[in-house]
Structure formats: C-alpha cells, structure tokens
Design brief:
alpha+beta, OB fold (Dihydrolipoamide Acetyltransferase, E2P), 6-stranded mixed beta sheet, 4-stranded antiparallel beta sheet, 14 strands, globular, disordered N terminus
Length: 240
C-alpha cells in the first residue's frame, strides 16, 4: 500500500474489481483485513464509504500526513488495509475502524450498481437525524448503540448557504417533519458558493454550481470537540 499517494490503481477497471468481489453477509473488520470501498466522503477525520462485499457503511480513519490531505472523491473505489488493532471501541462512532497507510485508489464507479447500493442504505425517516435532537450531544451520552452515519434523502431542499457571522458553510434540509441546519464539511459545497458568487444556493442554481442534482446527504457525527460530538453533512451526492 502506497505511503505517498492514493493514485496507484491495480490492473482492471473499478467495475471489473467490483464484479470480482464475493458478497458477504457482514463486514470483516479483523486486524490486517483489506476492505474495498466505494467512497462517499473523504475528510481528515475519516473516509466514509460502502464496503462493496457486504454493502455496509463504514468510516475508516486514514493516517493522512500533514503534507498530503484527503484527495479521494465520491464514488472512487479504494482498497484500505486495516491496522493490526482496528480500534473499534469508539462509542460515538461504532462504524469506525483504523487503517494503516493510505488507501489505494482503484478507479471510479457509477451507474446501476451504485444506485442500488445507495438506495439500499437510505436511512428510514425518524424524528431526528442520527437519533437525537439538536446539533450536538456530550460524548459521554453515547453508548455505541446508535449509528454515527446516515444516508439521508431530504424531503425539502437542500439549501446551501454561508453564514454571515463566521462565513461557515451550512446545509438546510427537511427530513420527515424536522427542519435541519447542519454545517457542511464537503469541500465541493464551499466551491459551489464561490463559483456562483452567492451566499445562498438552492434548486437549479445549486445543481448548476455543483455540477449535479443533490439527491443524498451523508450525515455524520464528528469526533469529540470540546467534549461534544456534532452532527455535520460530510457530502452532497447525486443518485449515482
């Protein structure tokens, strides 16, 4: 596994690689296991993806060096090798595992298989995104029983906007009966506002600035910050 770059594809296309993977009922996360993932979001804290063998959402902590930040894009297919001690004991993030080295980029995947994978992972509508009200909760309240990731299909919106007071980027969206305002940690969201030279985008204007119509949101619970874990939107995604 490359320590220098993720862009070291092995032979064959991502579609060929995906076809060759044997389906499994559960994700395998033992030390040293190699996972082949469809990337949904890449962040310095972790990379969110779908394990292609089991169809399970997983967040992989990648040891990005200071001079090499996350460079993975949605729908990249990567191979990640888990550390000898995957560190699966985070009660706020039960889906999290730790990788050794950088993931290896194998190509990109789009089309029917991606649409099927994402459709199967859509979170059922509940009263609150990720199971609790508000934008954050104290770390000590988490018990490891509720997910820290959700693939959400908004019932209204999304609306992308920049707050005037601190210039941070947020997403507003409806989900069931709830109206949600969450910070956006997708670099494409900030670029969309910059390209459009607007502080608020929605509908066709948002689709034009992003280059696609956002259908899914990847909602995530952050690592603890000042003793609290925060809800964020890690990515805005098309259907596939």
């Amino acid at each position: 596994m490359s320590k220098e770059s993720t862009r070291t594809p092995r032979s064959g296309t991502a579609k060929d690689i995906a076809r060759s993977i044997k389906s499994k009922a559960r994700i395998e996360v033992a030390g040293g296991t190699s996972l082949t993932l469809l990337v949904l979001a890449s962040h310095v804290e972790d990379t969110t993806g779908v394990d292609l063998a089991s169809g399970t959402l997983v967040r992989v902590r990648v040891p990005w060096p200071e001079d090499h930040g996350p460079d993975l894009a949605p729908f990249d297919v990567v191979e990640a090798q888990l550390a000898d001690e995957p560190e699966r004991d985070d009660l706020a993030q039960p889906e999290a595992v730790t990788a050794t080295g950088l993931p290896r980029q194998l190509g990109t995947l789009h089309g029917r298989r991606v649409r099927r994978l994402l459709h199967a992972l859509v979170a059922p509508v509940e009263d609150h995104v990720l199971g609790f009200p508000g934008a954050s909760a104290p770390y000590w309240e988490f018990r490891g029983f509720r997910p820290s990731l959700a693939l959400v299909v908004p019932s209204k919106g999304p609306v992308l906007f920049r707050r005037l007071e601190d210039r941070s980027v947020w997403v507003r969206f409806g989900w069931g009966r709830s109206d949600n305002w969450l910070p956006a940690e997708d670099p494409r969201a900030e670029r969309a506002l910059d390209v459009a030279r607007r502080d608020r985008l929605m509908g066709k204007d948002l689709s034009a600035a992003l280059g696609f119509k956002p259908h899914y949101l990847v909602a995530s619970i952050s690592t603890p910050r000042d003793g609290h874990c925060y809800k964020t939107v890690r990515a805005l995604l098309p259907r596939g």
